[in-house]
Amino acid sequence: MEIPNDLLYTIEHEWVRLKDNRATIGISDFAQSQLGDVVFVELPAEGTELTKENTFGVVESVKTVSDVYVPVTGKVVAINKDLESQPDLVNSDPYGKGWMIEIEVSDSSPGEGLLKAEQYAEQCKNQE
Amino acid sequence: MTESTRQQSNSSSTAMKGLVFDEPLLFEMGSPGRAAYSLPKCDVPEVELEALLPEGEIRDPIKSFPELTELDVVRHFTRLSQWNFSIDTNFYPLGSCTMKYNPKINEVTAALPGFAQHHPYTPEALSQGSLQLMFELQEYLKEISGMAHVSLQPAAGAHGELAGMLMIHAYLAKQGAQRKKIILPDSAHGTNPASAALCGYSVVQIQSDERGLIDPAKLESMMDEDTAAIMLTNPNTLGMFETDIIKITEIVHNKGGLVYCDGANLNAVMGKTKMDAMGIDVLHFNLHKTFSTPHGGGGPGAGPVGVIDKLEPYLPVPVIEHTDGRYKLNSDRPDSVGKMKAFFGNFGILVRAYTYIRSLGPEGIKLAAEMAVLNANYIKASLQEQYHLPYDGPSLHEAVFNDKHQLKHKVSTMDIAKMLIDYGFHPPTVYFPLIVKGALMIEPTETESKETIDGFIEAMKDIARQAESSPGIFHDAPYMPVASRPDETTAARSPKLRWKPSA
Question: Which of B1, B132, B284, B385 could form an SS bridge with B160, CB 3.0 to 4.6 Å?
Answer without folding.
Answer: B284
